[in-house]
């Protein structure tokens, strides 16, 4: 629906109108610049970038005073025929008119999508990417250079840095001269050193923003459960600090420091749905383990065959199953359902009999399984167990198959999966296992496959396959002797809760990291003109000249060949007096220290993860000096102590001498821009944290 203006004109008839008529009109009078932007559908990234740019004082004044009309470059083949500049100008004029609480940036979004196909549709994008496109588009639309002359690029060739830097900046201005260059462009010094011949190449390159890395920890915190061989001890929850690119052996070494158990006596397994999803080998990489995985580390005997008289142990994976009535209209058979946590049990090879295994398992379960007296066994249970082979010999069951790995028919024959992960059992095949003596027991034992089922189709005589054992419980016996609450119990080690807190990082640390020497990757070598071949050279970037408004992009999104993550490290950044004098290598003017000091004017925030999230903005109004929080069409005042957070993504800093220069432009009724962002009154403020 479109509403006719008071003068009788239709808003859509204006050639530069944003088809975003707001809720208010000329009757509404608010603070200029305090205007929200409607979310058109995942366009919070665009709104955040626009609010930041709109609160850059000199750029906004440039558009409000219509100075851009004289500099529109409609013939620039690299530009957008002035359409991006006009759409942005119309947006700024509406936002700073004071007549709207919020506007709809539909036309601007349409223009952006037309000239940058990556922003087509309504998918969520990166506010920094949109900002980069917008600055480049505005620059080309407003480039004062109509005819670009040929510029020959020259290397330093031993000349003084000041001479080379001045030449590079003049060459840059011959091709690029706009309000964007005046406001946002600075100069790098790039030094490349060939590792082969030692050739040094020095160049000076312009930049529009600094993308600074965050100090990335090469460690990760992993949460695991340690299961001791002592049945009296409950499982222990630990948080271990291990190398991100480490191996399973590193995880065991870290746990050994907490428990005193030798790493050689540990086995690591991923438990999922009451079964072993995977049993890891010590040389496997930790990168295959996700934070959401349930990792159990079991203590085992660690004894292996070392001589004729040495005692060798076999590690058996053990599952728990309960016999339950199957969903059958005749009720003619029972099923077996997995429950509880599986175990890895060390069994001496010379005691590898069913009866000995029963007593070993009964001992391992003794914390939560009550051993009955002979009277209890005779009282009431004999009738239930009579006539049944409580320990049926593997391979001589009644047969059957399972439709669900967690539920199977009782009495099916044992199965073995060839090539299952874990230790190898070289004991005789199931048909040669010792015959068991008939006794009354709490549970029965069955040889199963790695899924916990004894499907005949998976059975074979491969003696090199990993044997899995299932403990099968009758419902009445489980109810009477198995303590489920105790079985699920665990204790927390003292380390839990102390290692998750990350130390905050200073913004200056990120800038130092940006200017450190790095070696180029093999995929991106440098061609050395002396060696006449590509070399993995060392590269160092230094700051030579800084712009009036400095944009600092915190590289929170980390992408590597093995992982990708968003870094939620808290970066502490100053709101006033960010001093770059120690980072700028150009000879400095000691009489003008304000040339190297900056004050914060805007912050683009990102909340969420890699694939989703939400963008908002903190910005300081150039007229009132008041900080506001822009969340799409919602705008609320905030205090300065709310600005710093883990969500800070793109920072906008203004040089202090520029703020003083802009003071006369502010109205006499408004505070000067240099008092920027003074702490506002405390009443009626939103707590965005």
UniProtKB/TrEMBL annotation:
User: Which Gene Ontology MF annotations are present?
Assistant: cysteine-type deubiquitinase activity
Entry's Gene3D superfamilies? Cysteine proteinases
GO terms for biological process?
Answer: protein deubiquitination; proteolysis
Q: What are the protein's UniProt keywords?
A: Cytoplasm, Hydrolase, Nucleus, Protease, Thiol protease, Ubl conjugation pathway
Entry's InterPro entries?
Papain-like_cys_pep_sf, Peptidase_C19_UCH, Ub_carboxyl-term_hydrolase, USP, USP_C, USP_CS
Q: Where is the composition biased (Low complexity)?
A: 401-430
Q: What is its main location?
A: cytoplasm
Q: What is its EC number?
A: 3.4.19.12
Top enzyme category: hydrolase
Location comes to: Cytoplasm; Nucleus
Q: Where is this region: Disordered?
A: 1-28, 373-435, 665-689
Instruction: Show the ranges annotated as biased composition (Acidic residues).
Output: 375-384
**GO CC terms, sorted:** cytoplasm; nucleus
Per the record, the similarity remark reads: Belongs to the peptidase C19 family.
Function recorded in the entry: Deubiquitinating enzyme that removes conjugated ubiquitin from specific proteins to regulate different cellular processes.
Name by which UniProt lists this protein: Ubiquitin carboxyl-terminal hydrolase
Source species of the chain: Bos indicus x Bos taurus
Upper taxonomic classification of the species? Eukaryota, Metazoa, Chordata, Craniata, Vertebrata
């Amino acid at each position: 629906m479109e509403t006719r203006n008071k003068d009788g004109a239709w808003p859509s008839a204006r050639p530069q109108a944003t088809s975003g008529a707001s809720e208010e009109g000329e009757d509404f009078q608010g603070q200029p610049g305090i205007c929200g932007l409607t979310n058109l559908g995942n366009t919070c990234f665009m709104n955040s970038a626009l609010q930041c740019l709109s609160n850059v004082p000199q750029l906004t004044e440039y558009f409000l005073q219509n100075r851009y009309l004289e500099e529109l470059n409609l013939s620039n083949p690299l530009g957008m025929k002035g359409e991006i500049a006009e759409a942005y100008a119309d947006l700024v004029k509406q936002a700073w008119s004071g007549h709207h609480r919020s506007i709809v940036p539909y036309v601007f979004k349409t223009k952006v999508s037309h000239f940058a196909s990556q922003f087509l549709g309504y998918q969520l994008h990166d506010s920094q990417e949109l900002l980069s496109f917008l600055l480049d588009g505005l620059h080309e639309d407003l480039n004062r250079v109509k005819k670009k002359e040929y510029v020959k690029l020259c290397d330093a060739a031993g000349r003084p840095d000041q001479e080379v830097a001045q030449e590079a900046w003049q060459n840059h201005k011959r091709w690029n001269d706009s309000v964007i260059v005046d406001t946002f462009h600075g100069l790098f010094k790039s030094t490349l050193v060939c590792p082969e011949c030692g050739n040094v190449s020095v160049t000076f390159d312009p930049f529009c923003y600094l993308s600074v890395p965050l100090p990335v920890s090469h460690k990760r915190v992993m949460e695991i459960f340690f299961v001791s061989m002592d049945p009296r001890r409950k499982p222990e929850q630990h948080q271990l600090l291990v190398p991100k690119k480490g191996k399973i052996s590193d995880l065991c070494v870290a746990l050994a420091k907490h428990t005193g158990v030798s790493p050689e006596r540990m086995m690591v397994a991923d438990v999922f749905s009451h079964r072993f999803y995977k049993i890891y080998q010590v040389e496997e990489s930790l990168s295959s383990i996700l934070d959401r995985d349930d990792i159990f580390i079991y203590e085992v005997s660690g004894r292996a065959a070392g001589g004729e008289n040495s005692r060798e142990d076999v590690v058996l994976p053990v599952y728990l199953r309960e016999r339950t009535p199957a969903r059958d209209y005749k009720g003619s058979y029972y099923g077996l359902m997995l429950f509880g946590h599986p175990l890895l049990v060390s069994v001496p090879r010379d005691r590898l009999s069913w009866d000995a295994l029963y007593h070993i398992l009964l001992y391992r379960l003794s914390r939560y399984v009550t051993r009955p007296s002979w009277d209890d066994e005779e009282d009431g249970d004999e009738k239930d167990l009579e006539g049944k082979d409580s320990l049926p010999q593997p391979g001589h069951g009644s047969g059957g198959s399972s439709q669900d790995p967690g539920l199977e028919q009782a009495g099916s024959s044992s199965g073995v999966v060839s090539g299952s992960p874990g230790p190898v059992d070289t004991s005789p095949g199931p048909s040669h296992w010792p015959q068991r003596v008939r006794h009354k027991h709490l549970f029965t034992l069955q040889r199963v496959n790695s899924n916990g089922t004894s499907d005949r189709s998976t059975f074979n005589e491969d003696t090199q396959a990993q044997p899995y054992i299932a403990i099968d419980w009758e419902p009445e016996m489980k109810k009477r002797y198995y303590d489920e609450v105790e079985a699920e119990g665990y204790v927390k080690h003292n380390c839990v809760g102390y290692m998750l807190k990350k130390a905050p990082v200073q913004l200056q640390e990120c800038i130092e990291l940006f200017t450190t020497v790095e070696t180029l990757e093999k995929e991106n070598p440098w061609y050395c003109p002396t060696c006449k071949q590509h070399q993995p050279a060392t590269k160092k970037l230094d700051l030579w000249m800084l712009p009036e408004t400095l944009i600092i992009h915190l590289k929170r999104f980390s992408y590597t060949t093995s992982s990708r993550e968003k870094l939620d490290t808290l970066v502490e950044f100053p709101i006033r007096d960010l001093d770059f004098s120690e980072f700028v290598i150009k000879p400095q003017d000691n009489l003008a220290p304000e040339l190297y000091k900056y004050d914060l004017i805007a912050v683009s925030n990102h909340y969420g993860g890699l694939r989703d999230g939400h963008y908002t903005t903190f910005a300081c109004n150039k007229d009132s000096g008041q900080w506001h929080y822009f969340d799409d069409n919602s705008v609320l005042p905030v205090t300065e102590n709310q600005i710093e957070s883990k969500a800070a993504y793109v920072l906008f800093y203004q040089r202090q001498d520029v703020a003083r220069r802009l003071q006369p432009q502010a109205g006499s009724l408004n505070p000067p821009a240099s008092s920027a962002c003074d702490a506002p009154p405390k009443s009626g403020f939103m707590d965005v944290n």
